[in-house]
Amino acid sequence: MPDSVPNDPFGVSLPEEPPAPAPAPDLRATTARGVIINAVFWIAVSLLGFVRGFILAGLLTTSDYGVWGILVIALGTLLWLKQVGIGDKYIQQSDADQEVAFQKAFTLEVLFTGAFALLLAAALPVIAIVYGRPELLAPGFALIGLLPAAVLQTPLWVYYRRMDYARQRRLQAIDPIVAFVVTVGLAIAGAGYWALVIGILAGSWSAAIVAVVRSPYPLRLRYDRGTLRSYASFSWPLVLATGAGMVIAQASILLGEQELGLAGAGAITLAATISQFTDRLDAIISETLYPAVARVAERTEVLFETFVKSNRLALMWAMPFGLGLSLFASDVVRFGIGEKWRAAVVLLQVFGAAAAVNQIGFNYDAYFRARNDTRPIALVSVASLAAFAVVAVPLLITEGLDGFAGGIGAMCVVTIAARAYFLARLFRGFEPLRHIVRAIAPVIPAAALVLGARAAESAAGVHRGLAIALGELVVFVVVSLLATVALERTLLREMLGYLARRPAPA
To answer: Which alpha helices (DSSP H) does 153-278 contain, by range?
Structure first.
């Protein structure tokens, strides 16, 4: 990547800024290699989760899936806990004594997690009453055991801050592998939703034990009031953003269960699980970039360059997958997970399209976190929550799953608009419409071929079997890939060039 962007990929000219030291070439190489390492890791993990989801969809009943969906959403903060900002603030800081800095962050994580564990334990009986499902209590209390395991994995922050992605991912790989083996094994044995509960606990605690053993610093408690104030000002908007996301997820499952029964809750859970596959590349690029972006947080021209190019890289993957899910949702149900999920087809289609479009400006929050300005993140989340409450909830109540799908689409539009507003204030010349057009372009010929083939099949009265569906899928993937390479060959060549450079020492 050049040190300035007089002409960005969308033709926007940026004014000259006072000269500043450019980021070291080895930082660029380290970041590029980190993207590859993280891509391999997350693709493997995502495929593992994707395969597990389909296996479990076949082994578990829709009611079991519904109970699990309620548990995941009702205790969703277990998964979102790391996003409240303590780890992010630790990455951003530049204290002279890094061992002390880590121990202060670890202490805050212990205090926050302990308080939240008590809150969740008190809330579980209320959740069971609200859902009218007393069977949620036992697995719910068991899942609280994920919280201390998450705290014990904080030594991984050190490797992340050092941009030692290879070591970080080797240690993290233990969790999904153990969870997959245990979950599938117990599901085959007939354990129902307990297979998921025990599997996720086994994976998390296995990773925690290894993280403690391999910790670069000893785990000690160091409390400092000044550090608490600094972390609190950084974190409260992230807590609010997380809370808004949690409300949307919980309300979706709660209303789905109340209006449509456990099968409705299961359909919403399945659609969200499959569409979230597109979010994995967000994690790959955002997590890789964040430590590097934090080092050049005041260089807005460099930030804009990395933002544009990282979005282009993410959309190369997310747009074909999301729109592909929309195109082949009916086939996924018919030939894959079974006709018991037929009612979720429209929901899958909309979630796929929304997941694809939602990648526009997907990593905006990393740039605001790196600049210690987290309030826009909270405001975008509140806007999404408002759209959900005003549009998605009424449509779910009146129109069922199809109406809820339309509401999710409307919420996605509001989210993109809110992101664009704040990004335009940070980056002069940001134009989201150009992102959308460029992202969709490689998929247009692929989708046109598939839709044309289907129209011909319908006109000829051809029976649509598995072979035809697979053939169309191959055409869609190959054409999308070729079109992407043709349109983005310059960027891809640039990324490959960084891999030839010598990376920064860990």
So the answer is: 156-161, 165-172, 174-188, 194-213, 225-260, 262-275
